[in-house]
Automatic annotation (TrEMBL):
Pfam families xrefs: Sulfotransfer_1 (PF00685), WSC (PF01822)
Keywords for the protein's UniProt record, in alphabetical order: Repeat
Protein name, per record: WSCD1 protein
Cross-referenced SUPFAM superfamilies: P-loop containing nucleoside triphosphate hydrolases
Keyword set includes Repeat: yes
Presence of keyword Cell inner membrane: no
Family: Belongs to the WSCD family.
InterPro entries (UniProt xref): P-loop_NTPase, Sialate-O-sulfotransferase, Sulfotransferase_dom, WSC_carb-bd
Highest taxon above the source species: Eukaryota
Recorded GO MF terms: sulfotransferase activity
UniProt cross-references to PROSITE patterns, sorted A to Z: WSC
PANTHER family cross-referenced by the UniProt entry: SIALATE:O-SULFOTRANSFERASE 1, WSCD FAMILY MEMBER CG9164
Length: 577
């Protein structure tokens, strides 16, 4: 009996040892497998992600760009959570804090982090290698590479037009944009900026100094820091389709001395608009002025501001052999050349002591107002949010932290005591709620420059949108009137109708001194790139009578509140329909 018990005890000890051994072997094998997979992922990450194998990102995220995590930190439910992220087409308000929404948003953020990681790792490639690859690809571009040249922002040689695309700029994109506007040369700088002109820069630089990789094309060089990669566009211009025609600005009284007012002129028998426009375009001037057989080129100035037009019939004889009314009037046309006297912008050299907000309800023209302020003052504007689409088009303040105080003012759609009292002062931009609601709905479903479809307008989302956003339009103004420390109220309609006077008020409020010529340049570029494209329905009325009754009550409430604070009431066109 003792023998049998001893044998059983010995067997159990061996089995216990065997189980321990098998468990240890299993854990070691799993650890080795995990290490192997980790090493494989790191090797793939260090190689970068090819452009044709980009990590999957939702289509909505592509339109918005990178989301600032601070926009997800506001715990208050309501429409303000949509600000800066509406293009994501989020679910209904009561579903925003559901676990499913949080999980999906965390997944999107992880994908963005992966994109950042791959972009950073790919940027570590030596610039000299990128330059060699770019030289090999030069033959693929239709333009002729002229070399690397110095780039002075104050005294630019390529001053015909300026374009930005801080994420997708390519050599071909820049060449096509300049060729469509009939320019002879295209130059790229900083990997994302495109300059057009008709004169080749004089100061050449070393080839290796053009070493910035194009943001939208790996292996291609788009200039460098204060350096331009310049291409000749003679071959492209022949087959390029003109982007736009000459724009008629109107009939104006001619200045007393045309030669002193305009820096370039031409006298040509049988002069036509096309001949004068082409002459001024080659000279890189935005205005072509015709009086009889005389063609003049220049800019809007104090002597010739284009503010007071006259009856077009007074210019009926200006293109004939004898000028009408003794040459007192002239025809003015806008050439395809961009007025670049006010396109240079920068961050504040020292932190601003006054923290200024540019506050508005979404769809009230905040982006357009930022365009005007930036070009008038020469300083970037910031944003409480991060809109990648705006950053890519040149609003560099989008990427700067909104509390850095390096921008002249900060865009915000926020309202509420805490958010408002963070600012020392604010420009409160107000727009007709009917127009604002339609503009924001268009932006939500078609981006900054598109129109929502009939299907969107006829869906149940439009009535829900009006019910929630109409009250927000009113509460936004009321709360800024209540908690704002120092306010300048600007009505969108007044700014549009009287641009220079209203813009002067805004600039003075920001404590910036600007020249008259710079303001005239802003007026000449007043629209920027912010007009919606596509088919717009005429006499389109998406508001039901029930919607109108709701909105009209809010209009009367806001009008009364403005007058109670000694501001002018709402414009007459806001009057209930």
């Amino acid at each position: 009996m003792a023998k049998a018990f001893f044998r059983l005890q010995k067997f159990l000890r061996r089995t216990q040892f065997l189980l321990f051994f098998l468990t240890a072997a299993y854990l070691m094998a799993g650890s080795l497998l995990l290490l192997q997979r980790t090493r494989l992922v790191l090797q793939q990450g260090s190689r970068g992600t090819p452009t044709n194998q980009a990590l999957p990102v939702p289509e909505e995220m592509g339109r918005v760009g990178i989301i600032d995590p601070r926009s997800l930190q506001n715990p208050q439910p309501g429409p303000r959570l949509l600000v800066g992220m509406d293009a994501l087409q989020e679910p209904a308000l009561d579903q925003r804090h559901s676990p499913h929404w949080l999980v999906s948003r965390n997944s999107e953020l992880r994908q963005l982090r992966r994109r950042w990681f791959h972009r950073i790792s790919s940027d570590q490639e030596p610039l000299q290698t990128a330059g060699l690859k770019a030289m090999k690809r030069t033959a693929e571009h239709k333009g002729t590479y002229m070399g690397c040249f110095t780039h002075d922002l104050r005294e630019r040689t390529l001053k015909g037009a300026v374009f930005y695309d801080l994420r997708k700029m390519t050599v071909a994109h820049c060449q096509e944009a300049c060729a469509e506007r009939a320019y002879s040369y295209a130059g790229l700088a900083y990997g994302a900026e495109c300059y057009c002109g008709n004169t080749l820069p004089a100061a050449a630089a070393k080839p290796e100094e053009c070493n910035s990789e194009c943001k939208g094309e790996k292996g291609s060089v788009c200039g460098g820091v204060n350096r331009l990669s310049v291409y000749s566009l003679e071959q492209l211009r022949a087959g390029a389709r003109p982007r736009r025609n000459v724009i008629y600005r109107g009939c104006f009284r001619a200045p007393e001395n045309l030669t002193d007012t305009f820096p370039a002129s031409l006298i040509q028998p049988n002069l036509t608009v096309e001949m004068c426009s082409e002459f001024c375009s080659k000279k890189e001037f935005p205005l072509a002025v015709i009086r009889g057989q005389e063609c003049y080129c220049g800019y809007p100035t104090r002597r010739f501001s284009l503010r007071e037009g006259t009856d077009g019939r007074r210019c009926s004889g200006t293109r004939g052999a004898s000028s009408a009314a003794g040459g007192q009037y002239c025809l003015v046309y806008q050439t395809p050349v961009q007025d670049t006297r006010c396109t240079d912008r920068k961050f504040l050299t020292t932190k601003s002591k006054v923290f200024v907000a540019l506050s508005s309800f979404p769809g009230a023209g905040n982006t357009w107002a930022r365009h005007l302020i930036e070009h008038a003052t020469g300083y970037y504007t910031g944003s409480y949010y991060f809109d990648g689409a705006l950053y890519n088009k040149g609003f560099k303040g989008e990427k700067d932290h909104w509390r850095s105080r390096r921008t002249i003012c900060v865009k915000t759609h926020e309202s509420g005591k805490t958010e408002i009292e963070m600012f020392d002062s604010a420009i409160l931009l107000i727009r007709n709620p009917y127009k604002s609601l339609m503009a924001e709905f268009n932006r939500k479903y078609a981006g900054h420059l598109g129109y929502a479809t009939d299907r969107n307008w006829k869906s149940k989302e439009w009535p829900d949108f009006v019910n929630s956003y109409a009250s927000w339009w009113a509460s936004h103004v009321l709360e800024w009137l209540k908690y704002g420390k120092r306010l300048l109220v600007v009505h969108y309609e007044d700014l549009k109708q009287s641009l220079i006077p209203k813009l002067k008020e805004m600039v003075e409020f920001l404590n910036v001194t600007v020249t008259e010529d710079r303001l005239l340049c802003v007026e000449n570029n007043r629209d920027g790139n912010f007009k919606r494209s596509g088919a717009k329905q005429k006499n389109f009325e998406p508001f039901t009578q029930e919607m109108k009754d709701l909105i009209n009550r809010y209009i009367l409430t806001v009008d009364e509140a403005l007058r109670g604070r000694n501001f002018s009431g709402l414009p007459r066109e806001y009057v209930p329909r």
